[in-house]
Amino acid sequence: MSLERFLNQAVSSWMSKDGPDSDIVLSSRIRLARNLEAYKFPTVFSHEEAKRIISDMENLLRQETMPKFGPMELLKIDEMQPLQKRVLVEKHLISPNLAEESPYGAVLLSENEEVSIMVNEEDHIRIQCLFPGLQLAEALEAANEMDDWLEQHLQYAFDEKLGYLTSCPTNVGTGLRASVMMHLPGLILTHQMGRIIPAINQLGFVVRGIYGEGSEALGNIFQISNQITLGKAEEDICRDLMGVVSQIISQERSAREALRKTSNIQLEDRVFRSLGVLTNSRIIESKEAARCLSDVRLGIDMGYIENISKTILNELMILTQPGFLQQYAGGPLRPHERDIRRAALIRERFQMEFKKFGEE
Amino acid sequence: MICQECNQRPAALHFTKIVNGEKTEVHLCEKCAQEKGEMFMFNGEAGLSFNNLLAGLLNIDPSFKQPSQSPFHQEEILQCQHCSMTFPQFLKVGRFGCARCYETFQDQLKPVIRRLHGGNWAHNGKIPKRIGGSIHLRKQIEELKHNLRESISREEFEQAASIRDEIRQLEKRLSASHEGGE
Ligand SMILES: [Zn+2]
Ligand SMILES: [Zn+2]
């Protein structure tokens, strides 16, 4: 029942709100990996240990409320339906790994879904904070507050020399993964990503597409995150990532301006054709939907399209994934049926926009 | 960028391999990456790619395959007393069994950790407040000692004296916290 409440609020705050630099940065995320001293890591722990960790968390939540984020809800993986898990994955609230390979896992969610804590994934505890736009410092602050609160009640595995001890040595030290989700159609259209990605890698950051399988970055959406977690302070890791991100932002902005100068009418044509497809199609695959949504979002950001909110890209990229579509349909769908559902959902969502602005 | 293996599909996996101090850029498409055993998780969390690469990375370095050629060491397999993970097991899965593994395998681990973290070996970030009380004090003392040296070199003796007093205060607190039975 309470799960329904979470799932019914399909749109979480980071999807529906604008943040700083939100013409290019969709969201900022901080993840802190923590482990409890008394238990073996999830790679080898016993079922009893796993259950004890979960009940430790349950007891903690029963006795105390974290003032800043309000009551947290604990959902156990083994008590959830496959579709419910899938929806949480599609919202980036839990990892595919927790949903599929952690039968003794659980997730704690704050009411506004800004904070989620995965329990018994690769590490005992993974605190995640997700904010709209470019707000790494704010997300780090929130994650730190959650971390400080947990630490008052739990005994972390911490080493004076190596910092927070994690199941995988790639996360040791700060246990911090800072990442920023960016919409980069300008760099794609001007064929610059191939040049930029190796440069970013060189600096110790990772770039990857987050939607779609295989080599494509559906919707021209990329995630940039740090690779090194040891030897640098959390604030420095975030500051360095911010530096890289602001470089990419300015390159994306100049790519967009170059496109406006050299191919204004072609770009406008592309944007409005995509809008036509989204508002009229009856069958649409995720790939085509992602491409058109990216075009429309670019059109909004560059002022070709008015009266459609920017957040429509973010929102629809998430809501048109298979899990959400099936939830929207109220049952399982075959791939072809999904494409029909997807087209209907997108049309409906755009109708809402047109109505909203029509009434104003 | 095109995959360097098949020269056909666009490269999706980009990383720098460092083998024996030598850097190599690697650009692979997903298919070739899988075939090379360097599985890249596209749907996982950022950084997961690196976890999966770890085992591969570790096996590349010949010094890890055969820790010693000496016949005396052949029988010796290092094992964590707490979770009973062995170092070869760790190499296979790329994950430790428990927090104490870090101590057990520290000698083997040092070069691995350096390689993963751009040469870094020591944590320089957050310290948990509750369990980190004495660590905080020690860090503060270290910082003050550094300031003390600086003021002396600048011949600011009045300031140096006050810093020295501060250090003494903190050192008293530190030894008290140790006697307090931690
Ligand atoms: Zn290839
Ligand atoms: Zn161990």
What are the main properties of this structure?
heterodimer; A: 360 residues; alpha+beta; 8-stranded antiparallel β-sheet; disordered N terminus; B: 182 residues; mainly alpha; Wheat Germ Agglutinin (Isolectin 2), domain 1; 3 domains; two-stranded antiparallel sheet; 8 helices; 8% strand; binds zinc ion
Q: What is the structural class of chain A?
A: alpha+beta
Measure the end-to-end span of chain B: 56 Å
The portion of residues assigned to helices of chain A is 40-55%
The domain count of chain B comes to 3
Global mean pLDDT of chain A? 89
Oligomer designation = heterodimer
The poorly predicted ranges of chain A are 1-8
Radius of gyration of chain B: 24 Å
The fraction of residues assigned to DSSP E strands of chain A is 15-25%
Ions, cofactors and other ligands present here are: zinc ion
How would you describe this protein?
- The complex is a heterodimer of chains A (360) and B (182).
- Chain A is an alpha+beta fold and 360 residues long.
- Chain A contains 13 helices and 10 strands.
- An 8-stranded antiparallel beta sheet of chain A has the order 2-3-4-5-1-8-10-9. In chain A, strands 6-7 form a two-stranded antiparallel sheet.
- In chain A, β4 and β5 form a beta hairpin.
- The longest helix of chain A is centred in the last third of the chain and has 47 residues, at 234-280.
- Chain A starts with a helix and ends with a helix.
- Residues 1-8 of chain A have low confidence and may be disordered.
- With 182 residues, chain B is mainly α.
- Chain B has a two-stranded antiparallel sheet with strand order 1-2.
- Chains A and B meet through α6, β6, β7, β8 and α8 of A and β1, α2 and α6 of B.
- The site of one zinc ion (ZN) has 8 residues of chain B, from α1.
